[in-house]
Amino acid sequence: MPAAERLGSHLKRAEQALNATKHAVLKPVGLTVPQYAALLFLSERPGISAAGLARACGVTPPTMNTVLKNLQERGLIERTAHEWHKNVREIRLTEKGTAVTADADARAVRVERALAAEFTEEEHATIVALLGRCVDLLESVRPE
């Protein structure tokens, strides 16, 4: 089957285009897409662990540790020992991190809104449903 006929190729191209556009709009803020994703999840779940954040962002723990190291060096996050589990480090946005996240999110939301504006409400709902079916099927056939 030629690549142009494979659904996976189209999904990958759409993901790459979205990431490239988000990368371009986040560059003035000095963030990568993975850094932005981590900050966004941290804004919604302050105190989450690095392992939990890695799962939420869909990256490996070593990748997340690199992302967090860079964010901490910029003063955007702080890591503190968990009150009960001394081996677990809680991660929170700093005041500077909160401001950078708000700026970055406004930029990313403009991309998402532009994308959504290309579709009617019905088309949007259809795309979401179809992508959900893709995820459900792929997760069901994934070898353990």
TrEMBL record:
Q: Where is each HTH marR-type domain found? A: 4-136
The UniProt entry, under InterPro entries, shows: HTH_MarR-typ (IPR000835), MarR/SlyA-like (IPR039422), WH-like_DNA-bd_sf (IPR036388), WH_DNA-bd_sf (IPR036390)
- Which SMART domains does the protein's record reference? HTH_MARR
Q: Which PROSITE patterns match?
A: HTH_MARR_2 (PS50995)
Domain of life where this protein originates = Bacteria
Any GO BP: response to stress
Q: What is this protein called?
A: MarR family transcriptional regulator
